[in-house]
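Table 4 source record.
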Amino acid sequence: MKVLIVEDDSSLREIIKRSLLEEHYIVEVAEDYKSALRKINDYSYDCILLDIMLSDGSGMDVLKKLKKQSKKESVIILSAKDSIDDKVLGLDYGADDYLAKPFHLAELKARIKSVIRRKQQGGEKNIQVGNVKIEPDSRLVYVENTLLDLLRKEYDILHYFMTRPEHVIDKTVLAESVWGDHIDQVDSFDFIYAQIKNLRRKLKQSDASIEIKAVYGFGYKLVEL
């Protein structure tokens, strides 16, 4: 899962980042309005944590631009202004949740899991395609009732595809989502090919009823067999 933190308080931004890295999220940051706009224009995220009181602009304007582009990121507003008007305005603009500062990190992480579960998993705690089941909270994968042993990035790749079954995934988008924004600057994506090759082999050996197929000239797609 890839999260963007838009927060101009450097200490809070770093605390949130460290906490989310412990949960195995891919974490990107934007320290102000301008950098937030650059990020949402160039990249995609599973969830955006959005401070509405930025030093050079309003987070509400970031939210409006995000929704104007019809992007699908879940958005949680973080605000020191715990007012009903701000909550209503943020939700009207398309935010998925609103959390007033100060907050406990445990609650923030629970809110992130909740909005992602609602948007990507249809409200279900686990993800299942065919006979393969992912338990996101524990990062465990089962084929039928047998545990599938995956490396960290293999799990991240499989999770990404299983939340988007039958969708063609561009290799650059996949790389940014699993390794972070700046991966788009690498000269070769051979590391992705190697990871997917190993993941496909493990799925086949475990008699999984899903497969990650190459779509020539475009990328990859997860399909049921």
